[in-house]
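Ticket opened by: R.M.
Priority: normal
Category: complex prediction / small molecule

The reporter submitted a protein together with phosphoenolpyruvate and asked that the result be attached to this ticket for the collaborator who will pick it up next week. Submitted input follows.
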Amino acid sequence: MEPSPVTDPLEPIRKEIDEADRQLIQILARRFDAVKRVGSVKQAEDQPLLDTERERRVQASWIQDAEALGLAAPFARRVLKEILNHSRRMQESLIENRQGPARRIRCGYQGQAGSYSALAASHLLAHRSGGESGLVGYLTFQEVGKALLNGEIDYGLLPVENSIGGSIADVNRLICDHALHIVDEEIWQVEHVLAVPPGMTMADLRVIRSHPAALTQCETFLSSLEDVQREPWSDTATAAESLKEGHARERRDTGAICSEEAARLHGLDVLARSLADRECNETRFLLVAREPEIPDPRLPCKTSMLFRVNHHEGALVHALDVFAKAKVNLTRIESRPQPDMPWEYLFFVDVEGHMEAPNLAGALIKLRSCCSHLRMLGCYPSRTRKQDVHLDLPPAPPVPRPEPVCIVETPAAESARPHPARASVRIGPVTVGEGRFVLISGPCAVESLEQIVDAARMVRANGATMLRGGAFKPRTSPHAFQGLGQQGLVYLREAGRQFELPTVTEVLTIEDIPAVMEYADVLQVGARNMHNFALLKELGKLDKPVILKRGMSATIKELLLAAEYLLNGGNLQVILCERGIRTFETSTRATLDLSSVPVLKRLTHLPIIVDPSHAAGDRELVIPLALAAAAAGADGLIVEAHPRPAEALCDKEQALNPDDLARMTAALRPIVAAQGRIW
Ligand code: PEP
Ligand code: MN
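Result attached by the on-call engineer:
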């Protein structure tokens, strides 16, 4: 008898997925069609293209709907960001194409197909030309410049700075030395992969070749490999090409770090992705032309210029003050040497705004009187507008930099002195201070990946904007759980990334600083270490926010003097934390000294948060103390919470469970609002 055909249980589900995909594409097409129509109306009525308020509203309701359907907000936000970017480009190209019929554009870049420059160029041109475009690779930046000046190409796309590597001197020099005009910019997310000849495995790998900058960007990955040599190559795409079948330099023990596209182009297998040490690895490209192109004034724009100030004291300050007075935001300033005038400099400056906008045009006229040379390099659509990840919040106010002094030996005299503007500390999208209220929450210790991911999900759903979790734990008993160490840092960062929460973790010793610096966004100095001046001095040298907890028997003045160690070293990103002190009272773990909040407000410009968990030592007491701290004017809270407190390896008695956390947040909201703070 014939066996009856076995039905694959996946088949009907896959059909459903295919159907959903089809609908998704149709819906996207419908959305973009509507976007185009909006663009035409805006164009006809001469309305600005960018409506920030509307974008904010669309984002807020999109995230709300996504969350209601059980989709993770960070994921929904990333998808929407892509859609909105694409929509904006479509509306822009409507305006750009209006200026003439589609024409074939020839654009030069340094490198070859599959290089990041080539990818960025084809992306930019797809939106610009409206017709077909031709890309031409050159060996050097100089050759791109030459080809542009002699009419071989219409545009050149040049990488001018990288978010990790900084500015690219050869490109700046090229723009400085020739009559080139900047007409557009592009921000390209660099994503390195490890490509190898087909069939090769990690075990065969002995050599990795790539551009030296790419090798540097993947330091952590490379140093995790044993017995693998690094081989510098002219560029990433050429390195990939050298491995393709039949190439003279092909080797069966060699891989290349390059783009996914370069790997595909040369028929290579990809063994690993996301190799860079930092997730954010972006390159900013400038599109240059022989003639200026003034963009439509309704587009958000940037204007670039090059100037030399008169050689006297304060001249540069005067020049920059012109922009400040006109409320023009500077996005880049860089100095260039002048070979004919050693030790006098030209300044490259990019500002936000259209050069014909009244405030900028006025500033540019005034600027002339402070300069001995001024050359406009171009006005072009801006692509670096920050996407605010906390979409429900209004944009953060500007952060005044604090002076590196919070108190001196005589606090009475110091408190009488008017303090500089209240400081605030920026941690990615989160601001501590400046009228904000921040909730940092998470477990006492990172215990496993699953635990910290569950915790991140829970705290994020309850209004926390940062995730805490100890990897190195200062335990009173040497027999107690000491934390997962380095592995804990890896898990914490992974959970933070999944839920877009910056992370806070304690640094116990000077030796731990490099690891904690690499993985966490804020370093916490625990109560037991507040007097560890050697540690504080080292932390003072860093460019990384620090939460400094009050020692268990430290006075407020001692806390401030400890902070002074950080500030004196140059690290101004200090958040003070009241976490309770030892008193004769034994009914709580410590006595929460809430008077320190208003006292510190009087004595220092630094932001102050409160940790009710370690003060209370008992979850029942955490919520009332948290509410009191908010009412006393704290800039935020750091609260221990665990998805399953009964299983906690550390401080389980004080950990809030998901319900407690939700109750606390609900009770906090009106108090925070009554304080006039934004959460
Ligand atoms: C902690 O935050 O986990 C901690 C150990 O706090 P403290 O240093 O205030 O005791
Ligand atoms: Mn704890």
